[in-house]
TrEMBL record:
<dbReference type="InterPro" id="IPR015424">
    <property type="entry name" value="PyrdxlP-dep_Trfase"/>
</dbReference>
<comment type="similarity">
    <text>Belongs to the DegT/DnrJ/EryC1 family.</text>
</comment>
<dbReference type="InterPro" id="IPR015421">
    <property type="entry name" value="PyrdxlP-dep_Trfase_major"/>
</dbReference>
<dbReference type="InterPro" id="IPR000653">
    <property type="entry name" value="DegT/StrS_aminotransferase"/>
</dbReference>
<protein>
    <submittedName>
        <fullName>LPS biosynthesis-like protein</fullName>
    </submittedName>
</protein>
<dbReference type="Pfam" id="PF01041">
    <property type="entry name" value="DegT_DnrJ_EryC1"/>
</dbReference>
<keyword id="KW-0663">Pyridoxal phosphate</keyword>
<dbReference type="InterPro" id="IPR015422">
    <property type="entry name" value="PyrdxlP-dep_Trfase_small"/>
</dbReference>
Length: 376
């Protein structure tokens, strides 16, 4: 065991061709937003069925701009999940709107669409669903609800690029859709994100929010029409993204095979609650829940013991309403019991395209040893 390399819970796969393309950008004399960004946006647009796509230096920025494009601000309610990366909710606060949290479905661990519908009020303006671990929220049902209540949808597909719902790739249909290229996501541009939009007018508006509100005029001068940010992507990052986008189907296929192997090899007597199997998922993460009430030690010790055996384990995510920021806003324990239970017991096991099937077996073996100790 000690001879084996440490297996992290995730790691990006970057090929030599991509590394070479980065070197070419660095030598080109133009390293910030330029031709590579345009090429990346065109390739993303093709990936998303020809819809307009613009990139930013993070998905957080893309989500915030998405809310701004919808005109969402103070007094508006946006419904989302408490079991997500906190960026999802931070951007709602950032534009001055009110996040309305709704508990999750214990099977999918995504927002419970029945509860979502009940949480709609006259102030609700938008729905912000998250496809946790790469398993999409049911788009058909989601858009039925949005349509019936005349609501906009901003899909946080940071984790679900390349996944499908009812046979259609996420982002190719629907309203606004945001994806992330953080190194832990299924494809990366080091840091980066993108927003898939409906019209070129929205895309032009996105460009303004992305860079200081600047609008280039035909006569070579400029105007500024809104207080935009500084969230443009560099050509260096875009070159990485282009190299990655070419391989997204291959990467997701590898992830799916590895997830299959986890389902095959994991000892079901260890008391772990496995995620639901779905062919719709891009298997961004593989997350069993620990049977904490039966264990002699907690999640922290479990993670430390796995680390001792050379296996990296992550936590994605604790239920966010229990963070100090949200407690200060009045949230408390017991409000979202399903998200709290999942958030307290979830662990992310290693899953990334560079892993071998034998790596999965290694994780399963370590799990078996650690869990037998925990349940003894
Ligand atoms: C990663 C992630 C984000 C933010 O992406 P960045 O590119 O890091 O800003 C937002 N929402 C979810 C669900 C994520 O997983």
């Amino acid at each position: 065991m000690s001879q084996l390399e440490f297996l992290p819970f995730t790691k990006p796969t970057l090929d030599e061709e991509t590394i070479q393309s980065v070197a070419n950008v660095l030598r080109s004399g133009w390293i910030t937003s330029g031709p590579k960004v345009q090429e990346f946006e065109a390739a993303l647009s093709e990936h998303f069925g020809g819809r307009p796509v613009r990139v930013a230096n993070s998905a957080t920025a893309a989500l915030e701009i998405g809310l701004r494009l919808m005109g969402i601000g103070p007094g508006d309610e946006v419904i989302t999940t408490p079991l997500t990366w906190v960026a999802t909710v931070n951007v709602i606060l950032k534009v001055g709107a009110t996040p309305v949290l709704v508990d999750i479905d214990p099977a999918t661990r995504n927002i419970d669409l029945d509860l979502l519908e009940k949480a709609i009020t006259p102030n609700t303006r938008a729905l912000l669903p998250v496809d946790l671990a790469g398993l999409p929220v049911d788009r058909r049902r989601l858009y039925e609800i949005a349509g019936a209540h005349n609501l906009r949808v901003l899909e946080d597909a940071a984790q679900s690029q390349g996944a499908t719902s009812h046979g259609e790739r996420i982002g190719t249909k629907g309203d606004l859709c945001s994806v992330s290229f953080h190194p832990n996501k299924n494809i990366t541009s080091i840091e980066g994100g993108a927003l898939v939009m409906n019209t070129l007018d929205e895309a032009r508006e996105f460009e303004k929010w992305r860079l200081q509100g600047v609008e280039r005029l035909p006569d070579g001068t400029m105007d500024v029409t809104l207080p935009g940010g500084k969230c443009n992507l560099t050509d260096v990052a875009a070159a990485v993204g282009l190299g990655q986008l070419k391989r997204i189907v291959e990467f997701n296929t590898k992830r799916t095979r590895l997830a299959h192997r986890y389902f095959d090899r994991l000892n079901r007597d260890l008391g772990l609650e496995l995620p639901v199997w779905s062919d719709d998922s891009n298997w961004h993460m593989f997350q069993p829940l620990l049977p904490l009430e039966r264990m002699k030690f907690g999640r922290g010790e479990f993670i430390a013991k796995m680390k001792d055996k050379g296996i990296g384990v992550g936590v994605h995510y604790p239920a966010l309403h229990l963070f100090t920021l949200f407690r200060a806003m009045g949230y408390s324990e017991g409000q979202y019991p399903v998200a709290e239970r999942v958030g307290a017991s979830t662990v992310s096991l290693p899953l990334f395209p560079g892993m071998s099937p034998e790596d999965v077996d290694r994780v399963c073996e370590a799990l078996e040893q650690v869990m037998k100790e925990a349940l003894a």
